[in-house]
Amino acid sequence: MLRSGQAMNTDLPVLKVPEPKKKSNKKLITIIVILFIALLIIVFFNSSLSKITEIQVTGAQFTSNAEIINDADLKVGDSFLFSSSKKIKESLLRNSSIQNVDVSKKFPGIVKINVQEYKVVAFELSENGDLIALLASGASVVTNSERMQIMDKPILTGWQPDDMNKKELMKQLSTIDNALLSDISEISPIPSSAFPDRILIFTRTKFEVITAISLLREKVGTMNGVIESQAPGRLTLLLADTFVPFDIEAEEDESGNE
User: Fold this and answer.
1) Strands 98-106 and 110-117
2) How far is CA 23 from CA 19, 27, 28, 163, in A?
């Protein structure tokens, strides 16, 4: 109680006015930004920028661009971002004429496919007269003679379509130096009981070579050495290697007929 004459103390503490909360404003801004980003994503995926607009194919000689695009399971209008370069490559490598594939993507919307096919090691004529290119992988593809240089590769004659030795021969020919391969003009099968894969090779330098597909890689050095150093003749490269020049054969035939 206040005594008489005593003044009341009016100095009360000043209450602080609370500052407005900024948290709710930050939440609102965050929500707006998220909605804006979501809207941009929706617009992007529904625009042409997110789609494949062009598929460029290079390097293919035996496989048409349309076939490559079909094998890659691609088409204009597919998703650009979700088209896997790895899956495209894996799909195309199932083609026995394709050795390697490089896939690249260029924004916006361009997919580039560069194909490396197996090299041609020989040619063959079909029953219909079509020129068939024989590849190092063992694949056979019909080709346009106007586009191919057939004078620097051997022609296979006398082979059955399902002859497995022919496919093995194609793989072996891929290991031969280009200079020697271009000298070989013709290869025919001449199987024997000892060598079911025996072959007869004619060269443009007038040699005849008898060997076996299974021995070809081993004997190719000897074959090359004889061709480079000797006059034309008959060269046998089997268990034993023999060489007889044609002029000596002719002399022996003449002496035998006398």
Assistant:
1) antiparallel
2) 12, 6, 9, 81
**What are the residues whose beta carbons fall under 8 Å from the beta carbon of 209, sequence distance 6 or more?**
200, 201, 202, 203, 223, 234, 235, 236, 237
Question: What pLDDT score does 100 carry?
Answer: 95
Cβ contacts of 160 within 8 Å, gap of 6 or more: 166
Does residue 143 contact residue 62 with C-beta atoms inside 8 Å?
A: yes
Q: Any idea what DSSP says for residue 154?
A: P
The residues that bridge with 112 in the sheet, in sequence order, are 56, 104
Longest dimension (CA), the chain: 172
**Torsion region of 77: left, alpha or beta (phi above 0 gives left; psi -120 to 50 gives alpha):** left
What are the residue ranges in the chain where pLDDT is below 70? 1-24, 40-50, 144-151, 248-258
Dihedral, 70, 76, 82, 87 alpha carbons, nearest 10: 20
| Alpha-carbon gap, residue 70 to 258, rounded angstroms | 70
Contact 93, 118 (CB under 8 A): no
Q: How far is CA 49 from CA 106, 111, 242, in A?
A: 11, 13, 70
DSSP secondary structure letter of residue 46: T
Q: How many CB atoms lie within 10 A of CB 85?
A: 15
Cis? peptide before 18, omega within 30° of 0 = no
Q: What type of residue is 36?
A: F
